Amino acid sequence: MAGFLRAAAAVITEMGYERATMSAIAAHAHSCIGSLYQFFPNKRSVVEALRAQYINEIEQSWTALGRRAPILSAEDLACRLVDLQIDITKNHPALLALLDVPPSSHTRAGRELIRARIADVLMAHKPRMSRAVAVRVASVVLQVSKGLLTLYAQTKADEKMAIIDEFKSVVSGYLVPKLTF
How far apart are CA 101 and CA 54, in angstroms? Predict the structure, then answer.
């Protein structure tokens, strides 16, 4: 199954979700389509398994940032939030192609988990922040990040650093006042 998920990630990264097919995933895995269907009944189920795998790995990154959050300035934390998201997309490039795939109940659960981890990071930095405020701010950060990561994915390689700088400006502009009041 892990081989099929690696193949799916490669195919989706190269072709995009819409153009990726079960046949292409099986071929990339050097397997027959019947073997792929034994594990996954359709492309959507492959994507959900891939997302679940990524969420587990990503959660560890957010937890690590949460441990460092108390010693960072608000500006540094905002920049680290952006850097972490860029690192995640570099380590899991298929995620950028999956941003536009309609969410399922599993996707929503994954987003809720990431929202909770972002809120944890914010509260680790600013322990006086209520959970409700942290979740609200994390929701905004998550939504803004989705838009900015989509823009990053569509940007030519020679402009990506400039987009990252813009991403940091947006997130810092929003978060710094929230974390320093």
Answer: 15
Answer yes or no: are the C-beta atoms of 149 and 96 closer than 8 Å: yes
27-43 burial code (b ≥16 CB/10 A, e <16): ebbeeeeeebeeebeeb
Reported as a single tens digit per residue, the pLDDT across 88-137 is 888 888 888 887 677 666 667 777 888 999 999 999 999 999 999 999 99
Residue that has been written with the tokens 């710094």 in this structure:
176
- Which one, of 128, 97, 95, 130, lies nearest residue 110 by Cα? 95
- Dihedral (C-alpha) 118, 124, 126, 128: value to the nearest 10 degrees? 110
What's the rounded Cα separation, in Å, for the pair 12 and 48? 13
The dihedral over CA atoms of 54, 58, 60, 65, expressed in degrees to the nearest 10, equals 180
* 139-177 pLDDT, tens digit each: 999 999 888 888 888 899 999 999 999 999 999 999 999
- DSSP H/E element including 152: helix 131-154
> How far is Cα 113 from Cα 116, in angstroms, rounded to an integer?
5
